[in-house]
Amino acid sequence: MSIAAVSRPASPWPLLLVGTAFLVLVIGLQQAEPVFHWWFPELDRPMYTRATFLELTLSHAGLVAVSSLVVVGAGIAIGTFVTRPAGQEFRGVVDTVTAVGQTLPPSAVLAICVPIAGYGAVPTLIALSLYGLLPVVDSTIAGLRSVSDGVKDSADGLGLTPLGRLLQVELPLAAPIILTGVRTSVVINIGTATIGSTVGALTLGSPIIEGLAGSNPAYVLQGAIVVGLFAILVDLVFERLDRRLQRRLPPQG
């Protein structure tokens, strides 16, 4: 994002409109059953009723939040470690492991985890954590490497220890790039969490999976619209966070 673009105030309307539409659907979608009866007259039960969309959304958001906390903590720690002198020789190993973690289909990770962890939320959390790690590790490495040598030398000249330089100078300056990776990871996981319903987790994928299995396109449409708006809403929130963060950072010399 350019400096000129960041300096311009962001319009609040996209976030307000998407947020309002999302809340209306989550709370009131099941009140629109007559609309779906008219839209899909061939279906006897065109409205998903096994759980409310508020329950599905809260459970879905909980899975994404917990897995994202794990991913952010582990990703920043790993990315920081391989940019320090003691960890540079592990960079290749870390690249390989994180790339493999994202290359594996989430459904394959679930199939491996279910015999060990059982059905429900746990295998879903493992799959989301593995799948979301690569963007955070890569953005942490890129962010820390973007800090200029002049800034690091100035921090050393002020008498900061290596840990103090990392915490007070390098990580704050790298924060916008790290946030980009976190944003990508969270948005990916909002979509990926839907497959958790195949192993018994309660997510917005439940109507999608049941709709696909039962040839009920109305269920698929209801789940897809809500999860799509959820991803767009979170992405818009991250966009505003990114603008605020970049406006507060001093230019690097």
TrEMBL record:
| ABC transmembrane type-1 domain span | 57-238
The name of this protein is ABC transporter permease
- Report how it sits in the membrane: Multi-pass membrane protein
* GO term, biological process aspect, one: transmembrane transport
Q: From what organism does this protein derive? A: Oleomonas cavernae
The protein's matches in CDD domains, at most eight in alphabetical order, are given as: TM_PBP2 (cd06261)
Reading the lineage from the top rank, the first entry is Bacteria
Give the matching PROSITE patterns. ABC_TM1
